[in-house]
Amino acid sequence: MTTTSPPPMDEPAQDLQAASELLRALASPVRLGIVRELSGGGKYVHELVAALGVSQPLVSQHLRVLRTSRIVTARRQARETRYSLTDDHIAHIVLDAIRHAQE
Predict the structure, then answer these.
(1) pTM, two decimal places
(2) At 13, is the pLDDT very low, low, confident or very high (cuts 50, 70, 90)?
């Protein structure tokens, strides 16, 4: 196991605010599940609904929060929209948090 040193305590306030907003956007079991599912690659809404076992309107509502927070991007393909993570770092944050909770 590797350890990293903590970041310096002199981060600008806007960096702390941005980190707080990121964590707030992830603060939902459904949104964490969406990010976990998208960590393996892009998916359509119906795939997320099946994987998470929740309704399509609920998945769409949470995807809207993730898109607004620029965590997820959407790309229209024919009649469906494919959702992907904007940044793989988000997947690491979520997957690490899930593993930590399982310890």
Answers:
(1) 0.84
(2) confident
Compute the residue count for the chain: 103
Amino acid residing at 22 = L
Q: What are the C-alpha distances in Å from 100 to residues 17, 23, 37, 97? A: 24, 16, 18, 5
Q: How far apart are CA 85 and CA 27, in angstroms?
A: 16
Is pLDDT at 2 greater than 90 in this prediction?
Answer: no
pLDDT of residue 11: 66
Q: Is 83 helix (H, G, I), strand (E, B) or coil?
A: strand
**Cα gap 76→82, rounded to integer Å:** 6
Q: How many CB atoms lie within 10 A of CB 52?
A: 17
Is residue 72 within 8 Å of residue 63, measured between CB atoms? yes
Confidence of residue 58 (pLDDT cuts 50, 70, 90): very high
How many angstroms separate the Cα of 50 from the Cα of each of 11, 53, 77, 86? 41, 5, 19, 22
DSSP 5: P
